[in-house]
Amino acid sequence: MAENPSAYEEAMREGSTHASQERWVEAVAAYKRALAVLPDDPKALMALGLACLAAERLEEALAAFQRAARIDQTNPTAPEHIAEILEHMGRFQEASRAYLEAAERHGRRKAPTLALRRLEDAARVDPNSIQAHIQLLRAYLALRKNQEALNEYLALATIYYSKGQNEQALEICRHALKLDPQNVQVQALMNQLLRGEEKPPSLDRTVFGIDYEEEPEDLEEGGNPAEAARQKALAELAETVFSDIPPQTGMLVMRPLSKREVDAMISKSLDAQTRGDIEEAIRGYERVLEAGVIQTAVNFNLGLLYQQQMRFEDALGQFQQSVRDPEYRLGSHFAMGECYRALGRIEEALTHFLEVLKIVDLGTVDRSQADNLIQLYEELALTHAAKGEREQATEFVNTLISFLSDKGWEDKVSRAREMLDTLTQEGPVLSLAEILAVPGSERVLQAIGLAQEYQRRGLGYAALDELDCAISLAPTFLPLHWQMAETLVAMGRTDDAVVKLLAIADVYRVRGNFAQSVAMYERALRLAPLNVSVRVRLIDLLISHGEIDKALEHYLALGEAYYQMAQLDRAREQYNIGLQLAPRGSRERNWAVKFLHRIGDIDMQRVDWRRAVSVYEQIRDLAPEDEKARLTLMDLYYRFNQPQRAMAELDHLMRAYRKAGLIQKMLIILEEQVAEHPDSIPIRTWLAQAHLDARNVPQALQHLDVLGDLQLQAGKTEDAISTIQTILMLNPPNAEAYRQLLEQLAQSA
């Protein structure tokens, strides 16, 4: 017990106040005062660690979290923070061990999803950690995530292979082939291990603590997402009965029920549901909700029971509550889709099934691809809504239900995503919806995989034959055509590939798939950057969808393409079109200035100085600090014998640079200008002053001396006297000569 509990509480409150105001130094001091009263308090240690972390005092934060982790060996948060800090410090092996500790604690807390994520983090930060890969393998095998398990088998085999432990590596490969006998990567690794060696003896069947001889026990089939959510809801309600946490209520009732009463109602409802007494189960769950209990599992279970009784509107009301909970979102959307389909409201059913597929699909892609994938599903929903083709929508809904109700659909999703991602290395992400809408989708995916393998082996014509067969089965599935284009590229048939890509882009454009259409045009342009017609079509597409900045980028590229082909008139024409569109672009991109510069470059190259003056004056007015515009105008004004206007441009630029403290930049520009105009008094004056500002006294004296001579030659005696006085203030080596000259000038003035 604390000797002074009030001091502890006051320090914790003060620390919390400082933390809420992001005053981290004060928060750290307050939490340390709290720990002075209660040195082993986990709450204060965690608070201190977080405050130190926010204050970027990593060593102190690490020490606090490590101490908290030792004291409270159940909380996974402390080792998670330890792992993150160690990873930031580059101490990857220690970070991996901390992530493993966090995973173990999450496992003890019955949080398998979080435990899996931490195991993945442990393997990520230390790819050579055998312990991390073994635990990940166990987890993936238990979850029937075969593709992920295969990856872990490969990782372990590779690690042991690198250590020279070939027998262990071979044994792991053999067990990997039980999951996928045709796996090319595993077979390739085994060939490397076996090449020139005798077959190694069998290892103990419990290598690494995993009983390889026994296949994982069959898990209860999860079924579709609604069925999986039902299992979760039943388990959650059963757990609630044995929990010490009182029920959460959200409405006023005559007499709040005790936890014992709520538990009794839930137990009775669960029992009735298990016995198949749907009416009794419904009445029980309804009483639970009437008592004001807030629990998503109750809403979801009740919705499913209403659905069984074909009370679809009542079911939808419950699912609209449960869909707000992330844990039940997938199952709720699926169940709502089924209800709307049963009511004959196919468009609404399709909306929810697409949402199901989107959620599943987002779980298969990197975060960087998520926005593009979301946009794809939004476009797909709009396309179906716009077409209003009930028969096609019904067929698509039935396909989705069938796919998501098959055993092992999660593994099919993973395999499909792997194929699609390989295909889209040169383009945007593809949605699973595209492949599911294709009859015989598994055969189509197999064809893509075989074509990719043939292509990797340099068997281009075999790949094309495989794709031709698949296209005959699914001629409208554009990714097949896309793969064909990539195969043509690999074969060196670039022109044929560009023609194919343009055809794909046009179909995507007609279908309303903007992102894919743009991607195909851009891929074609990477292969043929000087193809003007492709760029024109892409520009039109971008403008029609309001992507003005991207369209302007391609106008610049289009002008550059004409420029490289020595078609200067066409280049100038495209730059002028871009210039007219520039006001619709982002202001911060200064599009007009960019186009005008390119137009001006063409005019200068053609020695069309009068047009060039007009262009660069526009640039100067739009961007007064544009160095190139000012200096080019200065040069042009000299050519037209307008030195005063030339000096006005230089004067403005030098004043701006001087105000900004860019003395070195001034010196570079002025030295260049003096070299071009050695007799210019204003330029020499600016250069001498710039050297003075930079405290380059010898250089300043040199230019002041020349300046004085120029002023005397121009008959500007008073200016020369002023210049000589400045020289004398700098204590030159030949000061006496300057004094004599000054006396002579004074007498003659």
What does this structure look like?
Among the domains are: 191 residues, Serine Threonine Protein Phosphatase 5, Tetratricopeptide repeat (Alpha Horseshoe); 211 residues, Tetratricopeptide repeat domain (Serine Threonine Protein Phosphatase 5, Tetratricopeptide repeat, Alpha Horseshoe). 38% of the residues are buried. It is mostly helical and 749 residues long. It has 39 helices and no strands.
Q: How many individual β-strands?
A: 0
What is the beta-strand fraction?
under 5%
Q: If you consult CATH, what is the topology of one domain?
A: Serine Threonine Protein Phosphatase 5, Tetratricopeptide repeat
In one word, what is the shape?
Answer: extended
Classify the helix fraction into a percent range.
over 70%
User: Kindly, what is the distance between the CA atoms of the first and last residues, rounded to a whole number of angstroms?
Assistant: 97 Å
Question: What is the CATH homologous superfamily assignment of one domain?
Answer: Tetratricopeptide repeat domain
Main beta sheet: strand number and arrangement? none
**Could you report the average pLDDT, rounded to the nearest whole number?**
82
Low-confidence stretches: 196-222, 249-255
Number of helices: 39
CATH class of one domain: Mainly Alpha
Class inferred from helices and paired strands: mainly alpha
Calculate Rg over CA atoms.
Answer: 37 Å
Q: Please state the second-level CATH architecture of one domain.
A: Alpha Horseshoe
